[in-house]
Amino acid sequence: MAPDETPESPSPEEAVPLTGKVREKLIETKQAWAREGRLLTGEAYPLGGTATRERLPPGQTLVKDWPVLDLGVQPDVARDRWRLRVEGLVQAPLRLTLDAFMALPQAELVNDIHCVTQWSRYDNRWQGVRARDLVEAARVKDEARFVAFTSYDGYTTNVPLAEFIRDEVLLAHSWEGRPLTRQHGGPVRVVIPRLYFWKSPKWVTRIELLREDRPGFWEVRGYHNNGDPWLEERYG
Ligand SMILES: Nc1nc2c(c(=O)[nH]1)N[C@H]1C(S)=C(S)[C@@H](COP(=O)(O)O)O[C@H]1N2
Ligand SMILES: [Mo]
After folding, report:
1. Which of 58, 61, 114, 200 has a 20 to 30 A CA-CA distance from 91?
2. Cα of 196 to ligand 2 centre, how many Å?
């Protein structure tokens, strides 16, 4: 996709179609693995991610490089056309340009990431805006309980609001001091390190605060709705 073809940030009424040629075969394979329970070790740590002292979740292998995983479509989102909407159950909906986003309080965080396909990568240094600060700026309403994300490739995922506003959750624009590359979700991606990495949308454009949960792309294809790596919540 050429830079001037940045898709419009979708409006809430629109269902976002998956853009371009997604890798149907890959999606089918992953769905089949979910049905069969592949990759499960059966050795979940009973306390789960918020309390365990184990750094590496069960069944995971450490990698030094950083694999790229997505549906095979990497939208080319021009920096001046990127928009982030925060809407739904909020008193002050946001529609931010990248400049406005960069003007929010900035944070630098180091954390580990864990992909459901069994790789983990330690000590990723991100720069960006804390999810909590963003949610506060939008003045979330009391009845909001869940968050749904939409990305420029049409990908969706979901988390409880309580997971999203944890200290270590970030909307990252940079990694190791450099702007996040397109393949890893630039200009801006979400990073939710305590959950499997499919819960961390790349090329994010919309964050909706909801009363009821709304399962996303992989969640409706057999992946676990919560996705705690220490509980081995791969499939659900
Ligand atoms: N928009 C979007 N975000 C996405 C995905 C995707 O296909 N589209 N894939 C998810 C999955 S399954 C993983 S493991 C991580 C991979 O991120 P990476 O390519 O930066 O390693 O992104 C997640 N976020
Ligand atoms: Mo993944």
Report:
1. 200
2. 7
Q: Distance from the CA of 12 to the center of ligand 2, in angstroms? A: 26
Ligand 1 atom nearest 151 alpha carbon: 1
- C-alpha–C-alpha distance, residues 167 and 189, integer Å: 16
Tell me the domains of the chain and their CATH numbers.
Answer: 19-231 (3.90.420.10)
Task: Region of 88 please: left (phi>0), alpha (psi -120 to 50) or beta.
Answer: left
Continuous segment of H or E residues that includes residue 173: strand 170-175
- How much distance in Å is there from the Cα of 229 to the middle of ligand 1? 16
Please give the single-letter amino acid code of residue 50: T
Mutate to test the pocket of ligand 1, among 198, 199, 205 (most ligand atoms within 8 A of CB): 198
With 60 as the cut, is the pLDDT of residue 5 above it? no
Residue ID of nearest Cα to ligand 1 atom 21: 68
Under a CB-based contact definition with an 8 Å cutoff, are residues 74 and 152 in contact?
Answer: no
The whole-number pLDDT of residue 16 equals 58
Average pLDDT, the chain: 92
The yes-or-no verdict on residue 77 having pLDDT over 60 is yes
